[in-house]
Write a structure and sequence with these properties.
- The chain is of the alpha/beta class and 325 residues long.
- The longest helix is centred in the C-terminal third of the chain and has 14 residues.
């Protein structure tokens, strides 16, 4: 089969389509013939040597895919050959075939194309496992999403609105903010032109928001804390601005703030299966009802993976980027 190989540490130019061996499935796994694969920031980090696959995982990038079940391992009871599915992966999605534990596989939601289904697993599992399962975001609360026009942001806006949350987003252009507003975001903040802390305080009558989902990291850390309500929760899932910062601990204590952080790729198969089950139970009905829609900006052939990475790194896109084997 063909797969995109990271030939050395570097940028998009190190990605090459090569002939590789078809993965052997283990007990409890299925082999998926890949129809489409989502492109994520974690993939660009892997090419730089900063986000290695877990031990035993495929060395090829790709953390979510859709396709058709081609082979079923022992002890797999739910899936059968020919099923149309999408899946959360530990790696290996940038290929014609990928092996994945059966517990990380989801049915394609009714009304969603097989290709577009690849845009959901990573973002849905990331947002649900962090903001909802850990930070307990609930109806009537306020929620700030940094990078509202990213794949994560666009999904987070829609699922939060579905559950009755007031949504704030930051983005760097008026076009991106308008897109977020059309998806349901209540407040849009251009972080290049205004201070998001001041705007959040203004819109919440000085209180701050209840939950923040952050991919920026160090440079936003104290400002995020300053933007939180009493009992607020900050969830960090990325470090685009760096890993090290200083913090005024008094602000955490005085307002009973909680800071959480988590990755998805490094979790155990058992934990991922638990998250996937929760996503199917809580998120899939919103997709089937048309309340959460796939937003795909562009699709590239697998051979153009380097071009897809360049587009992602440019931040010119709105929504998800897919590769098609």
């Amino acid at each position: 089969m063909k797969a995109v190989v990271i030939t050395s540490t570097g940028g998009p130019e190190v990605l090459q389509l090569q002939e590789v061996e078809i993965p052997n499935i283990k007990d409890g796994e299925v082999l998926i013939h890949v129809e489409a694969v989502g492109v994520n920031q974690a993939d660009t980090l892997q090419t730089k040597g900063m986000h290695p696959p877990p031990e035993g995982a495929s060395p090829y990038p790709g953390l979510e895919c859709s396709g058709i079940v081609e082979q079923v391992g022992r002890n797999v009871t739910r899936w059968k050959i020919g099923d149309q599915v999408c899946a959360l992966l530990s790696g290996g999605g940038y290929a014609e075939k990928v092996a994945v534990p059966a517990g990380q596989v989801l049915p394609v939601p009714h009304g969603i194309s097989l290709e577009d289904a690849a845009s959901f697993p990573e973002v849905a599992c990331t947002v649900w496992s962090t903001v909802f399962m850990m930070s307990r975001l609930s109806a009537g609360e306020t929620f700030l999403i940094h990078g509202g026009s990213s794949g994560i942001g666009i999904f987070a806006i829609q699922i939060a609105k579905f559950f009755g949350v007031r949504v704030f987003v930051t983005a760097g252009t008026e076009e991106k903010l308008a897109f977020c507003k059309n998806l349901g975001a209540d407040v849009g903040i251009n972080y290049k032109e205004e201070d998001f802390v001041a705007r959040v305080k203004e819109e919440t009558r000085g209180k701050g928001v209840d939950v923040i989902l952050d991919t920026v990291g160090a440079s936003y850390f104290q400002r995020n804390l300053d933007s939180l309500n009493v009992g607020g929760r900050l969830f960090i899932i990325g470090f685009q601005s760096g890993l090290v910062t200083e913090v005024n601990l008094a602000s955490l204590l005085a307002r009973r703030l909680t800071v959480q952080a988590a990755g998805l790729r490094i979790r155990s198969p058992e934990n991922k299966a638990e998250i996937v089950a929760e996503v199917e139970k809580n998120v899939w009905p919103a997709i089937v009802a048309g309340k959460v829609k796939p937003v795909v900006y562009k699709k590239f052939p697998l051979s153009k993976a380097s071009e897809a990475h360049r587009l992602l790194l440019s931040s010119q896109h709105i929504g998800k980027i897919l590769l098609l084997p």
